[in-house]
From TrEMBL, chains A, B:
Residues 1-98 form the HTH arsR-type domain. The keyword DNA repair does not apply. The lineage of its organism: Bacteria, Bacillati, Actinomycetota, Actinomycetes, Micromonosporales. This is ArsR family transcriptional regulator. Keywords: DNA-binding, Transcription, Transcription regulation.
Amino acid sequence: MVGDVGDLYQALADHTRRLILDELTERDGQTLFEICGRLATKHQVTSSRQAISQHLDVLEAAGLVVTRRQGRYKFHHLDTRPLRAVTERWLRSAEPTQENP
Amino acid sequence: MVGDVGDLYQALADHTRRLILDELTERDGQTLFEICGRLATKHQVTSSRQAISQHLDVLEAAGLVVTRRQGRYKFHHLDTRPLRAVTERWLRSAEPTQENP
DNA sequence: ACCATATGCAAGTGACGGCTTGCCTATCAA
DNA sequence: TTGATAGGCAAGCCGTCACTTGCATATGGT
């Protein structure tokens, strides 16, 4: 197996990892160095390259990121399908605008 | 303010807290003792009452649970509206059943 | 071959989170 | 008032997590 249910929520628990998902949403298929650069310039993330690499490993284990090697580059692609589990678990029957008595 | 964006994901990061949300989805407005009982019998959660109480505090800080006092009882109600932030952040343009090439 | 680029592996550290333990407060019924 | 029920506060322990540091591997250009 590639990861249990808890890995998804664990992956989302970190601020930097959520920023990585934001960046991949804006521009899919970036390399590690591209992501590092964007996090530093746009979000003032001062973490080292290894830290970002470890974050990407967590995101990949959660199924939110899939990687594709090409030569010495490794491109990271976003996969938002696991996120639907969140919606389907608790938002099933709730109405968007519900009044409380 | 009642909590920043990160509190929501932090609240979802714990397994026991997700089980609490499950139980409140199935039966809304339970007391602390009711939740403790259901977690113990249905999910083999051996945590103490104080542990569950602290979990409920985290869920309330994240805006996922709202409480209502009545005498010596404190009823916990589910509010799933904060969960929509997850959908709107990363699932904006993705289609529900999308094929990958 | 040589060097720069792009990434990987592994050990160590500091802080935060989940849990327990112990005691305290508040409400209701007899 | 007394006792039982429902919940709250606070300190401490321990494991996990994010991060750094140092070194290693692999690809591409010259």
